[in-house]
Structure prediction request, 353 residues.
Amino acid sequence: MSRYMSRRHSSLVPYVPGEQPKERKFIKLNTNESPFPPPEPVLKAVAEAAAGLQLYSDPTCCRIAERLAATYGVSPDMVIVSNGSDDVLNYAFCAFCDEDNPALFADITYGFYPVFANLNNIPYTEIPLREDFTIDINDYIGRKGTVFIANPNAPTGIQLPVSEIERLVSADPGRIVVVDEAYVDFGGDTCLGLVDRYPNILITRTYSKSRSMAGARLGFAIGNREIVGDLQTIRNSTNPYNINSMTMAAGIASLDCEDYTRACCEEICRVRAYTGERLVSMGFEVLDSRTNFLFASNPRIDGGDYYLKLREKGILVRHFSLPRISRFNRITVGTQEQMDALLAATEEILKEI
Ligand SMILES: *Cc1c(COP(=O)(O)O)cnc(C)c1O
Prediction:
């Protein structure tokens, strides 16, 4: 750190993204990207938009916001578009938390939440998941603060019923509950049906996983128009041009390809079930996933060792050296072929030990 870094940020520990190796061709099952390319119309839209790059992108994002609103059955002023959903999550920490109103989230959840809290100088409490890695919503009810829930959760993959989130949202209209639905398209249940009835729920979504557009950086949030207005205030005070015109065009084109997206998600769910069963038959514990990844552990091998041995065989998964989950690995569900390679490598590794 230089001597010029502000005192406010001198102890900031940044988020560590999963590796994007350059040196060698890996089977990449470590960052929950889609194994499928974006559909043809998305590529075409990007090329067309590129021809107009001399102009600023639309700071109101009105065309894509209108299309998202129509797709998800809300009005356009209930939608804010962002540079990946990480961007709008950061706005939510900034807008809805402060010294007197801490952030509340699970001890095992998306690793970016504590980073956003620290960046914005917000106190936070990590609330332990139950022993079986499910959320007990009673731990949140009656506790002061803005709640962030990834649902389905990451890295566990476990879904919390919408009725439980509704219980939390309705118990205290004085606090906001942010539901991060990054993985909801892989068989999860959405809380979108709650946004018309409750002014204190915000739902964040991303194009990175189910829409095969991680590299485009596009996310959005849906909620009551007043809280979305607050987020727009933060956005317009940070970077009103946070979505570039190619990404915006790609995002609109993707909404014209719902059959393609659905087919990709269905294939991932099929391959997830197949891979999960095979891992269980090899002695793994596999949590019940509603996402495009599996969270798995095997009593015969340490999580860190399994990660390293897969890496030696050219397969990358994600291991977290954290207290309650170090025996697990998070394995992105790729194509059938990629998962067969993972399963074959795993068989070899288990034979070797
Ligand atoms: C991947 C992910 C996101 C966001 O990713 P973006 O690429 O920034 O849209 C948000 N929340 C969770 C839980 C994720 O796993």
